[in-house]
Each structure stands twice: as C-alpha cells, then as structure tokens.
Amino acid sequence: MKYFLSLVVIGFMGTGAFAQDLEFTQFYSNPIYLNPALAGSDGCPRFAMNYRNQWPSLSGSYVSYAAAYDQYFKNINGGFGVLAVHDVQAQTISSSQLGVMYSYHLKLNRKWSMNFGAKANYWVKTLDWDKLTFGDMIDPRRGFIYATGDVPRGGTKGFFDATAGTVLFNKVFNIGFTAHHLNRPNESMIIGDSRLPMRFTAHTSAYIALGQKSQYSNQTAIMPSVIYSYQNGFQQLNIGTYVKYGAFTAGAWFRNRDAFILTMGIRTEKFKIGYSYDVTVSKLNNGVSGGSHEISLGLNLNCKDKPPSFRTISCPSF
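Request: output the structure for the sequence above.
Response:
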C-alpha cells in the first residue's frame, strides 16, 4: 500500500475513479515531502535525493524519484524549500511535480516550538495511450492481435495543488500534521472530472538517548516513530523505530497489512546515505513482487545565518 493507486489502468477511464499519492519508505530522509512545516528545520542548507523501485519483479513496476532543497532564513523568520518529484507507474502513467514552500518558525516558550508550513505545487500527469490495451484487441485464441478502435482522448493534464502542515516539537519529541491537496484539483487525463482526494498525514517521533557522547562516537539513541495516513477511504499505519550508534543507524518498520521494512544508513555531520528494503507481506507476496528497494542521499552545508538559539527538530535521519 505504499502506492494507494490501483494497478488497474482502467480505473482512470471512469469519471468516478481516483488516484492516490506516492509515499517513500524512508519518510524522514526527505522531510519537506512529509510535511512543509519541516522546511528549514535543520537551519543550514540541506539537499535530499530519493530513489524508489517498487515491485521490480512485476512487468509494470513503480519507479519514483525526488530531489529537495530547504534552508532557514533569519530575515523571513522561517524556512524556504523547493521539491521536485517524478513518478513512473507501470510504464504507462507518469507524473511530475514542482513545489515551493515556506514554514514560519514560532517559539512558544523555553522548551516548545511550533512551525506552520504551506506548499504550492504544480503537477503534470501524462497517460501513454500506446501502452494501453482494450477488449476489442483480443482474439479468443491468439490474444492481443487487433488494433483498437478506441480513440485517444487527452493524455496530459497540468494542475495546481496546495498543501499545509504544522509541527510541534521540543528537544526530544515532535508531532506533526499535514493536509495535502486542499483545493482538490481535477487530475483527469481524459474527458471527465476526477478530483484528487485530500490526504491527511499525522506523524510523531522521539529521540531517546541511551548513552553519553564521547571523543570516539556520538551518543547511542533509539528513535521510535509512528506515521498514519488517510486518503479517500484508504488508511496506512507505519510503526517502527531506529537505533543510532555513532554515525550508523538501523531501523525496522511495519506497514499494516502490507510490508515489513528494514533500513540502514550512515550519517555524518555533512553527508548521509540510506538504504531500505520492503518485504511484502500482503496477498501480493514478496516472491511475486520482488519487494521494494529505496535509496536516499543527503547533504548538509555549513551556514553563517543560523542564529545561536536556533532550535532543530530531532527527527530520524531516514
């Protein structure tokens, strides 16, 4: 259920059909994709890249890419970010989106802070008619041998999309909420109206130190996390934890009725790299699907504008 999108392309042919959103397994490796309120949460310039290949053993797998930049700016008292995402679904439907976001950083008291974020996004979705098959192409004995009489209708759709989110945090705990597709844009790539349903995401994590820092390594810590998403009747609950020892991080997650996830990564002061593998446990078993592979890269740069009293959010790295 990483994609809420149906595998059946014919679902796009009706006016009552809906498509749902892409989600990455390494939720926090690209934090501004999870919640625009996390823009600038690290203070200095931050770059993130993600690659995901879902169900590679199937002929129509899902391949997704994302790239992001965000940074805190003192003169606007908040963070600014840019996010680009490209997704290819079963080699038939592709979508690209480019978004900009701003988050306002507010200190509530000596311990607690709250960020409010908003994102403006523009999508381009394309349906490749040459990859579709129809009933009139089928011979009862010889299979797909005829040309279809169906006439291509449309194929490309561009639309604007809006998202808003917030996150409340202190030194060791955070909880956030995001509402995606606030304007419910029409994403239909053919004749008709297909409104992109709103998606709601709640996320929380904690940073629990288990040992003191030393001259040889950073402190050991565990980072339990929960992420819940709801969209158009579909629900997804992700529960897991990461264990951090110095520069090394390992984690295990469970996505309800879908997958067991293993994650590992290395994070230094300026660079991080992570890998995760989803073991499919649904009726589409792992032997058939091939699971899912995901790789993330991150780069943090030094900066001079970060205030000495700036409060970072203790989110997991991956």
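The longest helix spans residues 31-34.
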